[in-house]
Amino acid sequence: SGTSWGQGAISTAKWGGVKLSEVLKLAGLDDPIHAQETGGMEHIRFYSIDGMKASICIEKGLSPYGDCIVAYEMNGEPLPRDHGFPLRVIVPGYAAVRNVKWLSKIELSGTEADGAWQRGLNYKTLPPSVTDAKTVNLAEMPSMTEVSLFSGITQTEIVSSSSSPSNDDDDANATTTTAIDAKPGDVVRVKASGWAWAGGGRNVVRVDLTGDNGASWTTATLTEGKDQRFGRAWAWVFWECDDIAATVQPDGKVRLASKAVDMAFNVQPESSDHTWNVRGLGNNSWYRTEVTPPQTT
């Protein structure tokens, strides 16, 4: 959304509710194709108790494979207040802003929802040539729906250094230490784990890690979440990587980066320079973190 979230604006939950398509059928929408062709109904609008409005295309909302629901449960419990009690919309694979909380009304329309969250600047990804949003015709620009591809590093452990003495060459764990003698220029071995996720239901097929700014890469092992249904991978996937070669930088720190690859072979770009826009939306460049090797005393 252009806010400095770090990796804190994503999670996975188990949602319970009723299919959005079934709700609309109960309201009289028996033939969505007829509604489109004769009534011009192209969008499903959602209204919140707090005045927020957003919409999605009718194809996503009514697709049997889109898995849109009106949710009343989260992780087997009634929706918490902060997550939309008593009802909210879940639109898997789309930007969170389309998952309207505190739902009060649903309607079909020939146009998108009104308001800043759909038609305003809030979720319009402007081209990099635009540096002043006041000059833009927002009506000509689509709002964010599906989002891109992301990864994050949540845990790291430096397990050995090229300058650390080995206690036993025959011991497979001899290089694992709680403190490391690592100097700038040394290569250390790092264990790391984290998550990855792609919008639109695209399965994550690979996560790569680097400790030398992309000069070399180590491929992680995908774990929980790797076997989601093809094209309906709505949840994140976890990964682990046990042997990343990382160079200690002049300031004594080690810097790691992760990049994910999805089933369409989209890859996270190296830098936010490749995704730059004046609002900062959709920045999915390599996730980077730094670690200070623990020193022996």
UniProtKB/TrEMBL annotation:
The segment(s) forming the Oxidoreductase molybdopterin-binding domain are: 2-117
Its keywords, alphabetically, are: Metal-binding, Molybdenum, Oxidoreductase
Taken from the UniProt entry, a GO cellular component term is:
mitochondrion
Name this protein carries in UniProt: Sulfite oxidase
What is its cofactor?
Mo-molybdopterin
Its domain of life reads Eukaryota
Q: What positions does the domain Moybdenum cofactor oxidoreductase dimerisation occupy? A: 189-292
GO BP annotations of the record are: sulfur compound metabolic process
Give this protein's Gene Ontology molecular function annotations. heme binding; molybdenum ion binding; molybdopterin cofactor binding; sulfite oxidase activity
What the entry lists under Pfam families is as follows: Mo-co_dimer, Oxidored_molyb
* InterPro entries in UniProt: Ig_E-set, MoCF_OxRdtse_dimer, Mopterin_OxRdtase_euk, OxRdtase_Mopterin-bd_dom, OxRdtase_Mopterin-bd_sf
What SUPFAM superfamilies does UniProt report for this protein, alphabetically? E set domains, Oxidoreductase molybdopterin-binding domain
